Amino acid sequence: MSEATHTNDASGARDPPRLDGWPLVGNTVAFARDPFAFYDRLDSTGDAVCYSIAGDEFCTVFEPEYVQRILVEENERYVKAQAFRQAAAGFAEQGLLLTEGEVWRDQRVRIQPAFTPDRIQQYADAMVEYAERTAEDLASEAGAAENIVDVGEAMSELTLRILAKSLLDVDVADRRAVVREATEALNDRGDAGGASAFVPDWVPTPKNRRFRRAMTAFEQLVDDLVDDRRDAAGEHDDLLALLLHAEGPDGTTMSEDAVRDQMVTFLFAGHETTSLALTYAWHLLGRNPDAAARLRTELDDVLGDRRATMADLPDLDYTDRVVTEALRLYPPAYVIFREPTEDVRLGPYRVREGTNVTLPVFKIHRDERFYDDPDAFRPERWTDEFRAELPEYAYFPFGGGPRHCIGMRFARTELKLVLATLARELAFEPTYDGDPDLTMAATLRPDQPMEMRVEPR
């Protein structure tokens, strides 16, 4: 790495290459017409490329070294990008996802104790128990419906129940429709391939109105859960208790609005991303029967006839590789947004203050510079030697630096335990052809129901 790469001084650096665009609209039309093709074009232009969308200045970077600099080495010079804040307007704006500076640091410190290794050990039993119930339900449903199941829906219900029980000690089974509607409305409004992604949240479009209705119902659900906890007898030791009672440096607890926004954040992000990761994993295993067979052999060898536990995870090496590879090919949090608060330097380039900087996880994860046959599902690629040679931030499904996903350890544990539990009992065979078409929304989502034939092993 050159000395120039390390310097903080942006003077003397050149602007990144820039895409040609139309007067006034810039590159908006090309991006909205096909976001995936647009990113392909960016990638073929350079390792950092500038362009304009909806009047805002953007710069996308494809070099892991630049990603590391933004997220880790100089993270204090960046905030969440304006484009991201606009897209999330009206969604948990006082939650951990969107706050900045001292407010964010105070929240992170208060919430972190809910995600220590010891705490996650306590959550493991609930993860496996709910996964076993889902296996029973899927086997029953499959038998009654010619073996066809919407796996995306099933995984969403499972991960929401695990999250609600583990972190909040609540049962949302009878109120899942509220969370589901808010999730769908947020993704629908944020679809990068539609005009709604560029319309301010205050404009009364059908999608904005749907989103506001859904968020009102979601927030009311959370308020009801908080009221139930306040009225409940006894003490609790979970995330909700931390949100209600943990004191900050000034001795105060979080405001009611901040508590609500934290719960909204975790109920949405904590179940949506994990359910997508599981759905994509079943898709990949269904399309690659040799990998599925190897996974089941490992589970039979390690577990036999008993349920998986946290203590088994170090021995479930191939299970871990399946999870890692699924997150590489289909990272639910597919782009990270940052904005420099001053002119900064990335390699030979100057990125100007206020630029929306995007870090395309989904593109870097499939870069042939780092991955042989990058579009192929190859869990076996994740050897110790390969991991050692892979550049930092050529793989970052949970972000990185101080603002990496606080639930990363929780999510990876859940993914492996659920995968192990269900794969021991069931086989998933996609009923559709090829890979799913994807939508760039709040998360990287399939644009079709992920219907699969589910059968007992």
Classification by helices and strands: alpha+beta
Number of domains: 2
Number of helices: 17
What is the average of the pLDDT values? 91
Main sheet: which strands, in order across? Answer: 1-2-8-5-3
Flag low-confidence runs.
1-7
Beta percentage is 5-15%
Q: What is the molecular shape?
A: globular
Distance, first to last CA: 51 Å
CATH architecture title of the largest domain: Orthogonal Bundle
The main sheet comes to: 5 strands, mixed
SSE sequence, one letter per element: HHHEEHEHHHEHHHHHHHEEEEHHHEEEE
Oligomer type: single chain
CATH homologous superfamily annotation of the largest domain = Cytochrome P450
Helix content: 40-55%
- The beta-strand count equals 12
Cα gyration radius (Å): 22 Å
CATH topology of the largest domain: Cytochrome p450
The CATH top-level class label of the largest domain: Mainly Alpha
Which secondary structure elements does this structure contain, and how are they paired or packed?
Blueprint: H1 3-6, H2 28-33, H3 35-45, E1 48-53, E2 56-61, H4 64-73, E3 78-79, H5 82-87, H6 101-111, H7 117-144, E4 148-150, H8 151-168, H9 176-189, H10 206-231, H11 239-245, H12 256-287, H13 289-303, H14 317-329, E5 335-340, E6 344-346, E7 349-351, E8 356-360, H15 361-364, H16 384-389, H17 408-425, E9 426-430, E10 438-440, E11 444-446, E12 451-456
Parallel strand pairs: 2-8
Antiparallel strand pairs: 1-2, 3-5, 4-12, 5-8, 6-7, 9-12, 10-11
Helix pairs in contact: 7-8, 7-17, 8-12, 9-10, 10-12, 12-14, 12-17, 13-14
